[in-house]
Design a protein that fits this description.
The complex is a heterodimer of chains A (about 100) and B (about 325).
Chain A (H helix, E strand, L loop, with lengths): L2 H19 L3 H21 L3 H25 L2 H12 L1 H12 L1
Helix pairs in contact in A: 1-2, 2-3
Chain B lengths: L6 H4 L3 H9 L22 H18 L6 H31 L13 H14 L4 H9 L1 H22 L29 H23 L8 H19 L1 H4 L5 H27 L20 H25 L3
Helix pairs in contact in B: 5-6, 6-7, 7-11, 7-12, 8-9, 9-12, 11-12
Classes of the chains: A mainly alpha (about 100), B mainly alpha (about 325).
């Protein structure tokens, strides 16, 4: 196993852990996409280009697109953005500043 | 001799438009791009109240934890047992892995005569340079047939779940009426960047997908991966140009007929080849010279059939998620 493959394996583990710990659903889908991309690179290193093509097309392409559409359908993307807006200090400062002045 | 142009002529040139855009005097998207803000998600207060009442009634009846000691005990026991079960499962799997033969050992049970025969006689018997394609579409073709059918059944299930019901008069069922039938109308239309990129990329993606399918028996690839690439290209085209353009060539009817013909062709062709092979009959399909595009006997047409099914299925998934139909 070369050093490059070791790095890819480490990236896989990091992606897999961070998917489950990310609070934003949009972020976790993006991390999932990167997981698939790293996986397809690994398939090339393991000399199976068949699987690499399929992984890149299905895992990184279509599955994540379907996830995005689902999030949009259940109105999860906007809710996440709104929650962040409320939490962010800039937003609070704007609201408080308006009141204080 | 200077070639100074008159103001009228200068205003027609590309440089004038470019510099006016650069200085922010003209917005090229103004009047060209229709922008509609995403509609605020409105909840019907009556429906929320009704759901809350139902939920409360169920909670009062079933999960009355304050008065039910047994239920509380059950909950704590449930958590403990679930953790124990997870630990047990992890330990079991780890122990099982330790019993597996090490990788790269010659005496593994995987290294038996089946794999050796596939590698030695694969090219001769299937006519495919890509041994993987020869395996999945010749020796183990029934597996691939099952996979295509699984995909088809999955689309049918998604269709049942996501389709907007219409009665015989063509009216939408009142139960599903409040679901937004087509959220496409709230997005920017005539997006110039997306359209330009799509008009470059979509033909390349689709040609690459066709290349993968047609070269399935010569190089890496095959029906499934090529079909997925073509499906991704179709989804990009749909996003850029909208449903009006894609509905010209792809409707529910086309999907139905393509899937029907591909799956039944696969089934019949493979049954024929298994019948002739198992009974030592002479097959009328020649294997051809290995390396030519028309070789490998049935592998190329089977790849095309699988690719068609997969491409249509991927597109159909997206269209149904988006619009509840094609």
């Amino acid at each position: 196993m070369t050093a490059f493959q070791m790095i890819l394996m480490g990236l896989l583990v990091i992606c897999a852990i961070s998917v489950s710990f990310s609070r934003n659903l949009l972020n976790s889908i993006l991390i999932y996409m990167s997981f698939s991309l790293v996986m397809s690179l690994l398939w090339i290193c393991l000399e199976s280009p068949d699987l690499a093509i399929t992984e890149a097309a299905v895992g990184a392409g279509i599955t994540s697109v379907l996830f995005f559409v689902t999030l949009k359908k259940i109105h999860a993307i906007n809710i996440a953005e709104k929650a962040e807006e409320k939490k962010s200090p800039q937003h609070e400062a704007l609201q408080n500043g308006g009141k204080n002045e | 001799m200077s070639k100074k142009k008159s103001t009228e002529n200068y205003q027609k040139t590309f440089a004038f438009h470019f510099f006016s855009w650069l200085h922010g005097e003209k917005d090229p998207y103004l009047g060209n791009v229709e922008m509609q803000p995403q509609k605020e998600y409105e909840t019907d207060p009556e429906m929320v109240l009704r759901h809350e009442k139902e939920h409360d009634a169920i909670m009062d009846k079933v999960y009355d934890t304050q008065h039910n000691v047994q239920l509380r005990l059950f909950h704590s026991l449930y958590e403990i047992t679930s953790i124990l079960f997870c630990l047990f499962l992890m330990a079991l799997l780890l122990v099982t892995i330790s019993y597996l033969p090490a990788t790269g050992v010659a005496e593994k049970p995987v290294n038996n005569e089946v794999a050796a025969r596939y590698i030695e006689n694969g090219l001769e018997e299937t006519g495919a340079i890509n041994i993987v394609a020869g395996m999945i579409l010749d020796y183990r073709a029934f597996d691939t047939l099952g996979e295509s059918h699984v995909l088809f059944v999955a689309t049918i299930t998604v269709l049942i779940l996501l389709r907007l019901d219409k009665n015989k008069k063509g009216e939408i069922n009142p139960l599903t009426k409040d679901m937004n039938p087509n959220d496409r109308i709230y997005e920017p239309k005539n997006d110039a960047i997306l359209r330009l990129v799509a008009s470059f990329l979509v033909p390349i993606i689709i040609i690459f997908g066709i290349y993968i399918i047609l070269n399935g028996h010569l190089g890496p690839g095959g029906g499934f991966s090529g079909g997925a690439v073509i499906g991704a290209g179709l989804i990009l085209y749909l996003n850029a140009f909208g449903f009006e353009k894609t509905e010209r060539f792809f409707t529910e009817k086309t999907y139905k007929w393509i899937c029907f013909f591909s799956l039944s062709f696969y089934c019949l062709a493979k049954s024929y080849s298994f019948f002739t092979g198992a009974n030592h009959l002479h097959s009328i399909i020649p294997n051809g010279t290995p390396g030519a595009i028309l070789s490998g006997g049935l592998i190329l047409p089977l790849n095309i059939a699988v690719g068609l099914v997969v491409a249509c299925t991927m597109y159909a998934f997206y269209a149904m998620f988006r619009k509840g139909g094609f």
